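Hi F.,

I've been meaning to write this up properly since the lab meeting, where we talked about keeping a consistent format for the predictions we share between groups. The idea is simple: the sequence comes first, exactly as it goes in, then the structure tokens exactly as they come out, then a line or two of notes. No screenshots and no reformatting. I'm using this chain as the first example so we have something concrete to point to.
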Amino acid sequence: MDKEDSILINTYYKNAEKAYIEGDYEQTEQYLKNIEELETNNLPAKILSAKTLYYQGFYDEAQNSLNNILNNNKIYDNKLLCDIQEFLGYIHYQNAN
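Output, unedited:
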């Protein structure tokens, strides 16, 4: 990935986070799709996508997405791992498990 793509990905991610915080999940997903076109395995973007699903009430889809991330990636960033585990906990709580 070149420097321009990296800058573009960072810009898309910041915009996605802003839209997410504002509750504009449709716009969040659009920015995340833009990231995926440039970098297919961007873990922060995948996690944010799962969180977006969660806040839209798609708990099973969010859980599947987070489990896929855990099962298919070695995650060395403790913050990302905690973020995933935190939302899996929320999902289990919502599903009364």
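Notes:
DSSP finds five helices and no strands in the chain.
The radius of gyration is 13 Å.

If this format works for you, I'll send the rest the same way.

G.
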